[in-house]
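Dear colleague,

Thank you for sharing your sequence with our group. We've completed the structure prediction you requested, and as agreed, I am returning the results in plain text so they can be pasted directly into your records. Please verify that the sequence below matches your submission; if there's any discrepancy, let me know and we will rerun it promptly.
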Amino acid sequence: MRIITAKEMRMLEQESVNCGVSLDKLMDNAGNALSSFIINLNKGRKIVFLAGRGNNGGDCYVAANELVYNGFDVTVINICGEPDTPLAINAFSKLPTERINIISGYKSEKVKKALEMAEIDFMSHEKSNELEKLKQLEAERIKTVSDAIKNADIVVDGVFGTGFHGELDGELAYFFSLAEDKTTIAVDTPSGGNCTSGAVSDGTFKADYTLTFGFVKTGMMQYPLKKHCGDIICCDIGIPEEALKVIDCNLKINTTEKSYISSLLKKREPDTHKGDFGKLLVIAGSEKMRGACIMAVNAALRCGTGLVCAASTESTINSISIRNPEALLLPMEYDYDGFMLYDSNISELEKELETASAVLIGCGLGVTNDTYAIVSKIVEKAKCPVIIDADGINCIARDINILQMKKTDIILTPHPKEMSRLIGADVSSVQSDRIKTALDFAKRYDVTVILKGAGTVIADSGSCLINTTGNSGMSKGGSGDVLAGMIASFAAQGYCVSDAAAMGVYLHGLAGDITAEKYGYEAMLPTDMINELSSSFRCLNEA
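Please find the predicted structure tokens below.
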């Protein structure tokens, strides 16, 4: 499913006009979609619309007009001021004022100035009567708005929509908080949320349902905004097909869908052999972090690689030989602290690299001068796809110019903290716009970036995918090692890096969802997810 930015939506609306569909018609369609949804929702008859000054408020006026003639008790609160766009003014003028309760729920500029002057006068001359009268009027206004919200069955947020940026006014955030025990609906995007980046202001409206028009917006698929959206319903408002040409030249951002991932999965012919499914070299683990390598190898085998060779330290190799006797084993020399050495191992690794169809490096590797040198050499020498995870990424972060030496496709799988090290920024900066962060890095270094987390972002220089599977139970150490092994497995089998990344991320989340149903979020483990990969493939093959 394609998702778009707020800017692209504005381009589509304007192009719709050029194609013969007026903005008035688009607004009527949006408002009617909203009213139909409320009617079918059957959650009560008392509706309060919190209407902004722009076209988002206009959508509310159209819906209010429709609902009042369907027997609903409708209140419209102009929460920020009177409508000030031609479309919103026109829609507001059509409201049957004798049937709808209309509240001016905002502090006017006149009152603001009067309060300021009265406070100055009070401070200077101790004349408090005017100030007290104004405060009383303000208290009455706030009570009127508050009571309307408290008495509603359904509260509809049509304040800002896709145009919001910055921080919410404290009073508006307070009004939003009063609606939290009601059935809540956001029009296009919950007010207070950035529908392009997914960032939110304090006090952002919390919706049970978000009706978004034309297309889902990119930020709605990212946290924290997604958490405020509730169920997302995308409504067709009549944007003509030919209008899409205006955004065709833009980078397309899509969500992962079961049907799409299923279409990527290659059919296994009956006359194939292990050589047809690639050889993966896994350079991972250390004496203190054996599990990372073990889980990556196990996951890779479960995803269908013909041969998996594990290059690791002695105790890790011994554990793999017991747990996964299917794996090839390449013992590595290690230092006093249990981390791989460069000089005594690199010739063996380069020899193994020659026959590999993909390489995974980094899981539990540790960050030392020797592991840094190993990562650098693999990036420099590899001619097959290289998947860099965990400490491999941390080694890269020591000298980002390592990526300039690559001769092949690179996939990086950072979590937000690792991403912050790569770009030299704090985690909050990464999380404030995950899509842009991943895309910018992917374009700059011509790599594929998998920025992990809720709504994992898969970005390369020409495309971007947002994952739709997975859950909070996967937030445990080892989940990333499983994911890295899965992606590397698909790359080793000959899938292009973009497909390998998409398949690995989607199936990883799907395995997590199946595991959560079986064990619950708290009790599930990454190793349980590996055991549910067979169920994940069966589910995918049913698409």
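Summary note from our side: The domain at 2-106+153-250 is CATH 3.40.50.10260 (Rossmann fold).

Kind regards,
the structure core
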